[in-house]
């Protein structure tokens, strides 16, 4: 199959008009100041990618306790806000749109990254068999403490506070990161969540935290400017659920009623390929969500064309291709060769492998 013209048909994601269906996926790059303030080179990086239908920012912590890796950005201080404002201004000047991905890592963290060397928090005290990246390189994630009910309520306030900073920073909306084994996912899936209070047990209880976060964020942005990211295949960060299809089916159906901008689904992660059974389950789950669906994970222009032509997806978010191809929509449109991303410069470092990937022709 060839490239569908539908990839370049404008549409609406909730309240946000997008000129094409080729979105920039959230990409962790670990190039902020250690206090979480984005550096000025991020203005160049995001500006270069403004021809995307929608940019979803790299995962951005909502609070000091939400941090899990070295040099990731935050959106919980006036300094963060001012630095992000320059980035959103640059994207808007380039004709683009950008959402802020609101992130709390939960147990995927290390005491050395957290205030006063505290333990990370999660739905339970189960330690992840996973690693994070600290000042000392890769280290095993620390044993977490289960959040109290008061701790959950305070974290919901942190999401609301971060959404307020995101609005002040000029973001067009926010994406609530509930995927990839981070805090909200640690509540959704019962391989980690063993609580016996109102936030554990059946799936209605396990999704309560996510729904309360959405309600709090909806006080700041309208639902049509809020997206949610999920990863029902649970491939990352030692996640598991006893019945993923039932769990995520209930979550999709519930989110379907909220008139959100979109549901964004990680369909495969770079650590594994999805099987036919996985693809079939993703398809059955997809039928449970009536709004805009953003597919992500391993797509190229042809697969994206198929997904959009068939009505399966509204848009497709590209990750690794966007690291190396700032003008990705144009390259897909004309069938140009792609620059290959260099894995060695994905995380941390300077402008090399960040703002220096070449455009097809002269830069915008
Ligand atoms: C890669 C490295 C660190 C974090 C995610 C925020 O998986 C991430 C992430 C990805 O959602």
UniProtKB/TrEMBL annotation:
One Pfam family this sequence matches: Oxidored_FMN
Annotated region Disordered: the residues are: 339-364
- Which Gene3D superfamilies does its entry note? Aldolase class I (3.20.20.70)
| Domain NADH:flavin oxidoreductase/NADH oxidase N-terminal residues, every copy | 6-335
Q: Which InterPro entries match?
A: Aldolase_TIM (IPR013785), OxRdtase_FMN_N (IPR001155), Oye-like (IPR045247)
Name the chain's protein: Alkene reductase
């Amino acid at each position: 199959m060839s490239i569908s013209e539908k990839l370049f048909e404008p549409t609406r994601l909730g309240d946000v008009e997008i000129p094409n269906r080729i979105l920039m996926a959230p990409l962790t790059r670990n190039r902020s100041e250690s206090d979480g303030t984005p550096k000025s080179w991020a203005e160049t990086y995001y500006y270069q990618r403004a021809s995307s239908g929608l940019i979803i920012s790299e995962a951005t912590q909502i609070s000091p306790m939400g941090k899990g890796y070295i040099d990731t950005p935050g959106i919980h201080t006036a300094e963060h806000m001012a630095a992000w404002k320059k980035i959103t201004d640059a994207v808007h000047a380039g004709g683009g749109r950008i959402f802020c991905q609101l992130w709390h890592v939960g147990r995927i963290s290390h005491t050395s990254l957290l205030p006063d060397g505290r333990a990370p928090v999660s739905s339970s005290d189960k330690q992840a068999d996973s690693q994070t990246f600290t000042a000392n390189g890769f280290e095993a994630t620390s044993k977490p403490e289960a959040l109290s009910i008061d701790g959950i309520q305070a974290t919901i306030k942190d999401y609301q506070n971060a959404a307020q900073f995101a609005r002040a920073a000029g973001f067009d909306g926010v994406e609530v990161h509930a995927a990839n084994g981070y805090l909200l996912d640690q509540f959704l899936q019962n391989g980690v969540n063993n609580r016996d209070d109102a936030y554990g047990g059946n799936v209605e209880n396990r999704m309560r935290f996510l729904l309360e976060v959405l309600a709090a964020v909806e006080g700041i942005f309208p639902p049509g400017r809020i997206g949610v990211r999920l990863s029902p295949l649970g491939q990352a960060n030692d996640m598991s659920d006893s019945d993923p299809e039932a769990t995520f089916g209930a979550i999709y159906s519930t989110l379907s009623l909220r008139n959100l901008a979109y549901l964004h689904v990680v369909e495969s992660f770079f650590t594994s390929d999805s099987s036919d059974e996985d693809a079939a389950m993703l398809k059955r789950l997809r039928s449970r969500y009536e709004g805009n669906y953003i597919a992500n994970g391993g797509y190229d222009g042809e697969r994206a064309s198929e997904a959009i032509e068939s009505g399966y997806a509204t848009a497709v978010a590209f990750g690794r291709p966007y690291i190396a191809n700032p003008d990705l929509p144009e390259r897909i449109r004309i069938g140009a060769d792609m620059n290959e991303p260099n894995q060695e410069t994905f995380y941390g470092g300077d402008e090399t492998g960040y703002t220096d990937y070449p455009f097809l022709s002269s830069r915008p």
